Structure formats: structure tokens, C-alpha cells
Amino acid sequence: MSPALRAGCILPVLLVVPFLLAWAPGCTARYTADWASLDARPLPQWFDDAKIGIFVHWGVFSVPGIGQFSEWFWCWWKIQKRADQVNFMRKNYPPGFEYADFATQFHAEFFNPDVWAELFKASGAKYVVFTSKHHEGFTNWPSADSWNWNSMAVGPHRDLVGELVQAVRKKSLHMGLYHSLYEWFHPLYLADKASGFKTQEFVARKALPELVNLVTAYKPDLIWSDGDWEAPDTYWNSTEFLAWLYNDSPIKDVVVTNDRWGKGCYCKHGGYYNCADRYTPGKLPDHKWEKCQSIDKRSWGYRRNMKLSELMDLPSIVKDMVYVVAMGGNYLLNIGPMSDGMIAPVFEERLRGLGAWLGINGEAIYASKTWRVQTENSTANVWYTAKNNTVYAIILGWPSKQVLQLTVPKMSAATQITLLDYPNVPLKWAPLTPSAGLVIAMPPMPVSPGNAWCLKLEGVV
Asked: Where does the source fall among the domains of life (predicted)?
């Protein structure tokens, strides 16, 4: 029996039936509600092939839109009582103004999902992850379990999730949904927390019904779970949910999940690993992973007071993305739209610049695999990927003397080298040593906005 039932909670029929199917003795379901079984599920291939995704943090927090990690505004103001947020409210809003009042100002009047989807497509991304609900609890879809605190009941009066799902899929991109398990101020969660998480009223009546609703209503290709760190996975009934998701849900064959399903789970259990935000491993991981990184280095949600110096420029984005892919990861690049639904021009410029670079060099990124060596040990800033029998050397910064030395590849009689900018023009090269390495004569090249180029090495090992 589930922990929720043992605790005396009654799960809605929508949840009980699929979960019991997953647990029932003698059941022929492929996956059981335990980590040993769930962790053995192969990751759907589309995710590893995709490599690049766009993360979108948007919600009521976009209205005040100030301070580091602006999406945490409510927590900083009311729980942490940080001076920046407290003083901002004191100076700009009347006494008695509550966070819920921001929802009436979340109009999303310029939100055009087709415009967003076109930009995401132009960025070169293959999937999108959109915040269905952040820790504030406001849902960007008409959740029946979030009465009067959702985008249909107040603010935009629109199904933001549904509109974006439809637009993104028209562009043939995969659609993922971010969902926070916990909510800072929900009374049922606070009561469960006060019990030491021995009760599960919030899980049974809020968290799991909303997750099932998202799955059945929108059929996301990816579920990006978060807000899990205060309570163990047994409180969240995570393994029961995932067993249903993988066995009986309408997306059981395609869905990808991350690793944030309870305290102590991340980097250990789940589909692929996010580990910590901006996770950057120092050596090649032995499990599929993803780095989430925000263009605004100080926040995931939009900040009205952000400065240009606090944003990643295009060369930094390309460099970061190349490192991640060479190390076997996916790169999830975040933007925070304004509360009115506009995407800041500086974010658009970065995304279109990334897409232009991938338009030339994407062959070395999409569906690539890690090579036997990830980077050069020499002074050259070069990273390697591979696909079939081809190796790609991605150069970060043009060699100053038009000559590039690669110490790692071993040449053969069939070795041929081209630059993806000029794919039909073989480059001249010579052996660096009798056993390994190449000296390549690089052609004159114009400046690249991304400050990165890619060599295609055929006939090397």
C-alpha cells in the first residue's frame, strides 16, 4: 500500500487506479515503483539527439521582476525578509499590498505563442521546457486544483501552457513542462511539513493531481521536476507516479524525466541528471545529464533591473554549450520573459545568434556522441564530438598564426579535413608526429560572432 494510504490520506480515483495498476501483485507492468526498476528504464533517444533546449521561467514573479533570482521574490520578501525586496515594496506599493495582488497585474497582453515558438525554432533548440508552476504555486494553466490561483482565473485569463504547447509542436519541437512539487505558502504543504512529512495531504490533494492533469491534458515529452529538496521521495510518492508515467500514461514511450523527485535523489535517481543548477562536471559523467544555464547570470525570471554586464554574451553561450555537449550533456538555456509576454530584445539576439552558429555547425552537435577524448591537452582550446566514423574538433578562438595543432587525432591514409563553414574545400594538413597529431593550415576567415569554428575530421581515430 502506498505511504499516502498508510498515512490515512485518500488519493483521488484518478491517481489511485493507475498507481494500483503499477503496484498490484502479479501485474505485468514493465516498471515497478522502486528506484532499481525505474532507473533501469532506457532514456528515449530523442533527448540525447536533441542536445539543445530552451528553458522559460514566466509567472506572477515576472510582475515585480527585480532582484537576484527574481522568481523567488515572494520568498525573499515574506520568508527571508531581504532588505532589497522589503524596501522595494515599501517604496513602491501601498501598505496592505500582498503578493497575490501581483496576479491581477500579470496581463500577458503581448504574449503570442507563435512568436515565441518561432524564436525557439530559430535558436536551434530541439525542445522547450516551460514553467507550468513555480514555487509560488500559481499555475500557468487552468488547474482545477489551484482554485483562483491560475492563469485562467486571474491575470491573463488564458491557458498559457496549452497555447504554448500547441505553438511549439507546430514547429516540430519537443515540449517539456517544469513543475514545482512544493509551494512556499500552501497550507496543506505547511501542515505536512509541520508533521515532519508524516502526513501527505498536499501530495494527495494538490501535487500529484496536478502532475497527472498536466500529463493527461498536455502530454509533455519531458517533465522537469523541482522543489523536491525539503521532503523525501517517499513523501512525494515519486516512484509510484513514475511507475504509472512509464507504464500506463499516454506518454509512457516518449516521456523523459529529470532527477529531482525527493531529498537526496538528484544526481542519483530519475531519467537524466540535472544535479545542481548550472551543473558543470569536471570529468565525463557516466549517466546522461543536462546543464540548465540562464542568459541572465543572476536570475531565471526576468529582472527589470538587469545590466548588460550581467548577461552571457554569444561567445560565452557557445563555449558553455560546446563544453556540455562534448561532455555528453544537453544544454538547456534559460530566458525570463517580461510579464506582458514580450521577450527582451537582448535575449532574442542571443538566441538567434546561437541558432545562426548551429545552422553552420550543428552537424557537430545534434545526435553527436562523446569521443575517446573530450578536449586537447595542449594550449589549443578545442573540444571533440563524434558521429558515426567522423570526429569534430570545435575550436574556441581562431588560431593566431593560421596554423592549428591537434595532438590527439591519429591520421590514416583516408584522412580528410574540412571546415564546416566551407564543407567542400579540403584543408591542407601534415602529421605532427609519426604516430599521432595533425598540423592544419587554416584558411582566412571573417570574424565569427560566436568566436567558434568546427573542423570535420574524416578518416581519423
From this structure: Eukaryota
188: CB partners within 8 A, 6+ apart = 201, 202, 205, 206
User: Quick one: pLDDT band at residue 15, thresholds 50, 70, 90?
Assistant: very low
pLDDT of 379 reads: 67
Give the distance from CA 237 to its chain's centroid: 23
Sorted by sequence, the CB contacts under 8 Å of residue 413 that are 6+ apart come out as 459
Name 190's Cβ contacts closer than 8 Å, sequence gap at least 6.
Answer: none
Whether the model clears a pTM of 0.85, i.e. scores above it, the answer is yes
Cα separation, 58 vs 140, in Å, equals 9
Of 223, 285, 275, residue with least CA distance to 47: 223
Per the model's pLDDT, the better-predicted residue between 2 and 219 turns out to be: 219
Say how far apart CA 425 and CA 417 lie, in whole Å.
9
The DSSP-derived string for 166-225 is: HHHHHTT-EEEEEEES--TT-HHHHHHHHTTS---HHIIIIIHHHHHHHHHHH--SEEEE
At 26, the pLDDT band (50, 70, 90 cuts) reads: very low
Instruction: Show the domains of the chain with their CATH numbers.
Output: 3-364 (3.20.20.80), 382-458 (2.60.40.1180)
Provide the pLDDT for residue 13: 35
Q: Residue 65 and residue 304: Cα distance in Å, rounded? A: 6
The label of the residue with cell 501483485 reads 25
Give backbone dihedrals phi and psi of 236, rounded to 5 degrees, phi first.
-75, -5
Q: Is the pLDDT of residue 49 over 90?
A: yes
> One-letter amino acid identity for 376?
E
Number of residues that this document lists for the chain: 461
Cα separation, 408 vs 308, in Å, equals 38
Residue with cell 511539513: 193
**Burial class for 330, CB neighbours closer than 10 Å (0-12, 13-18, 19+):** buried
255's grid cell: 516521456
How confident is the model over 261-281, as a mean pLDDT?
A: 96
